[in-house]
Write a structure and sequence with these properties.
Elements (H helix, E strand, L loop, with lengths): L1 H5 L6 H24 L6 H6 L4 H14 L8 H38 L5 E5 L4 E5 L9 E2 L5 H24 L4
Antiparallel strand pairs: 1-2, 1-3
Helix pairs in contact: 5-6
Length: about 180
Amino acid sequence: MRTLASHLGKLERANAEEVVREIESHLHEVVDQAEARGEDLDVAALLQGFGPPEALAAQYVAHIQAGAPPPAGFRVIHRVKQTVTRGLYYSMGAFGYSVAIAFLLLALAKLIEPASVGMWSVAGGTSITISWSGSPHPDARELLGYGLIPLALAAAAWCAEVTRRVLRVLRRGLP
């Protein structure tokens, strides 16, 4: 990092410090992600992915002073970000569509077993429970009756649509 900073001398001090902070931030992010996965990280290989500090500094200087494209020497970090984005993409899809399916099943269950499925008010209205196994308490009263069906269907459609839109945005970050 010191070598990189020494080659950023053509930049204003604030810009040079920002470049160093940005790279340090990326390094810390990669290390933290590797530790979270319980992996040993080869820091030397990570640093080599940036290329020689002189070349990286020259790319940043050209980018800041002349508007050249930003440095492309972040192959290692780019791969990590793609992995995180791909993982986020599939996790979000699984979660969002699972919730939508759960609401759909709730509506279907209400049609099949109307007395066992419902939204119940418990303890004088201080607690509300959605249950698939009947009243959670002897004193509970059902709130929506068959009105739960359109509400659950609307919630299923909404979850599916939000998930679709989020996945469309995340897909832009995929390779």
